[in-house]
Amino acid sequence: MPVYVYEHKDEKGCDIGNAFEVEQPITDAALEKCPNCGGAVFRVIQPPMTVKHNYSNTDLKDMGFTKLVKRDKGVYENVTSRDGESRIVKAGRPETLPDLKKTITD
Fold first, then answer.
1. Of 78, 75, 48, whose CA–CA distance to 65 is shortest?
2. Which single residue of 6, 36, 75, 76 could bond 41 by disulfide (Cβ 3.0 to 4.6 Å)?
3. pLDDT digits over 51-106, tens only?
């Protein structure tokens, strides 16, 4: 469920402060009154929360991921190849595909 930020229209706010967060369904209308003091409030538009990690190929391999990088038409390099796996993956050649049984476990 999304968390929305609201601010009091007057600068004073109330016991919970000038700004506060409310968890509410996206289908609900924006609050017009503070749930604490009843004062007029407005919803503040927030940027979406994103998480970006710069994992190295080794990190991805250690976490069990397979990363293929396109090198040519129908040719990919498996930069996270494991023992016995082909480093080059070619379209139409199933023997060059990564062994997913090595990477997927229960």
1. 78
2. 6
3. 888 899 999 988 888 899 999 999 999 999 888 888 999 999 988 888 777 666 65
Give the DSSP letter string of the chain. Answer: --EEEEEESSSS-BTTBSEEEEE--TTSPPPSB-TTT--BEEEEP-PPP-------HHHHHHTT---EEEEETTEEEETT--TT--SEEETT-GGGS--HHHH---
Q: What's the token pair of residue 43?
A: 């919803």
pTM comes to 0.47
- Return all residues near 5 (Cβ < 8 A) that are at least 6 apart: 19, 20, 21, 43, 44, 46
